Amino acid sequence: MKDDLTLIKHILDNINKIEKFSKDLKKEDLSKDELKQYALIRAIELIGEAAKNITKNMKEKHNEVPWKDIIGSRDRIIHQYFGINLEIIWNIIKKDIPKLKVNLDKILKELESKN
Fold this sequence. Notes:
Helix content is 78%, strand content 0%. It is an all-alpha fold. The protein has one domain (4-114). Helix 1 (4-22) packs antiparallel against helix 3 and helix 3 crosses helix 6 (86-114). It is elongated.
């Protein structure tokens, strides 16, 4: 099992990929670009999978992070993959991901200062 520091770094790496894939992306263009859809969905899945493995202690200590929502996003995408609502993906990448990055950057600094 990976430690929280490794998992947080993994999540941040996928956030950076989401930012790269969605840079200058317009909402209407997302529906036309299957490759970007796939890449964004996959990065969100990986974030959810990593969040699922964060320790209970870390989740309780940092309850400002909506862990259940992050994990739930992953589950919704996996269980409804063929019927995915691009509006949900758009909201995640444009609203949720920037907030998550701020929170996880703080946690990362805290964890790295302890090592």
